[in-house]
Amino acid sequence: MTLRTSLQLLCALLVGIIAISVLPMMGGMVSGYAWAIALLLAIVAFFISAPFTKSFSASLNTKSVNQLQLSGLGLLGGLLSAFLLQPILGALPGDVQSYFIFPLAIILGLIGASLFFDRDLPGIAAPTQPIANIPVTATAEPSYFALLDTSVIIDGRISDISKTGFIQGKMLVPRFVLHELQHVADSADTLRRGRGRRGLEILKQLQQNQETPIEITEQDVSSSGEVDAKLVALGKHMGIPVMTNDYNLNRVAAIQGVEVLNVNELANAIKSVYLPGESLNVRVIQEGKEHNQGIAYLDDGTMIVVENGERYINRKIEVVVTKILQTAAGRMIFAKPI
I need a labelling partner for 222 at 20 to 30 A (CA). Which of 65, 131, 158, 323 fits? Predict the structure, then answer.
C-alpha cells in the first residue's frame, strides 16, 4: 500500500468517526441510518482527499526522519491539548461538547503537526533529498595514470592489462615516444622493424579500448635529448608515474624521484607461488647451463631448472620444488624429479 492510499484511508476513517459520533445526536437520528450516512461520507472523503493526499505525500518524501518525528510529537501535543480542553467544553450548555470534541482534537492535532513540519532540531543535518530526485552528475574525467614509454608499448602486455579494468585513469603517450616508435618501425633491421610495427599495432589497440582511455600528448620538456631522459623529466614535471619494462629507465627514474610502474615486476608479482616440497608436472624442453640440468617453463613463463633432468628432455615428468630464487630478471624455481 502506498503512502498516498494510506493517507486517503486515514482521512476517510476520521470523517467516518466524526460522522458516527455527531449524527445520532442530531434530531434523534436512528443509529442504523447514522452508520449508513457515516459510511457514505467516509467513501466520499476517500475520493475527495485524493488531490490533498497526493501533494501531502510528495511533501513527506522530502522530509528527514527527524522532521517526521517532530511532526508526530506535535500531533500528539495537539491531541493532548484537545483532551485537556474537555472540561472547558463540558461547561457549555447542551451537547456542545459532543459536537466539538472530535473536530477540535483533529484541528489541534494538525496544528501541532504543522508547527514542526518544516523545522529541525539544532545541530541536525538539513532535510535529505529523496533518492528519486537526486540529479545524476556526469562522471568526472579520469586522472592521468601513467606515461608510457616505447618498450612497454612494444612489449604488448599493457594492452591485456588495460582490458582487465585494473588501470583507473588515462594513459599518456608523449609525441616524442610516438616518433621513436615510428623510427623503429622504419628501421632497416628486420627484427627492429617488426618490433616497431608491433608497437604501432598495440598502440592502435589501446586507442580502441574503451575501458582505459589513452591520449597522445604534445607536452615536452626540451627540444633535444634522449627519449628516456625526456620521459623521466616529463613524468617529474607532471607528477605522474612512468610505465616501462626497461631496467635502466627504471633505475634512472628512481634516482630522480619519479615513480615507476614496471610491467615485469607486475608479471612477477602475479605468478603462481610454489614452496619447497610442493610437486608439479612439467615438460623438460632443453638442457640447462650446468651439467645434467634440464629446463622447463610454467604457463606464466617462470623458468624451472630440473636437476638431473637432461635425460627427460621432451618428456613430461613430475618434480618436487627444492628452492626458489628471485632475480632481477624474474623468479627461478629449482626442482628435482620424483
Answer: 158
Q: What is the CATH number of the domain that holds 321?
A: 2.40.50.140
Q: Are 27 and 37 in contact (CB under 8 A)?
A: no
If one counts every other C-beta atom within 10 angstroms of the C-beta of residue 16, the result is 20
Domain hosting 233: range is 144-269
Instruction: Give the position of cell 617488426.
Output: 194
Using an 8 Å Cβ cutoff, are 209 and 163 in contact? yes
Instruction: Please give the average pLDDT of every successive group of 10 residues along the chain, which has 338 residues.
Output: 68 74 59 75 83 67 59 70 67 57 67 60 43 40 77 88 82 90 90 90 85 83 76 89 88 89 82 84 90 88 89 92 79 89
User: 99: closest CA among 177, 198, 209, 22?
Assistant: 22
Angle between helices 190-208 and 175-185 (to 10 degrees): 140
Q: Do 9 and 124 fall within a single domain?
A: yes
**In a shared domain, residues 93 and 35:** yes
Whether residue 44 is contained in a domain is answered as yes
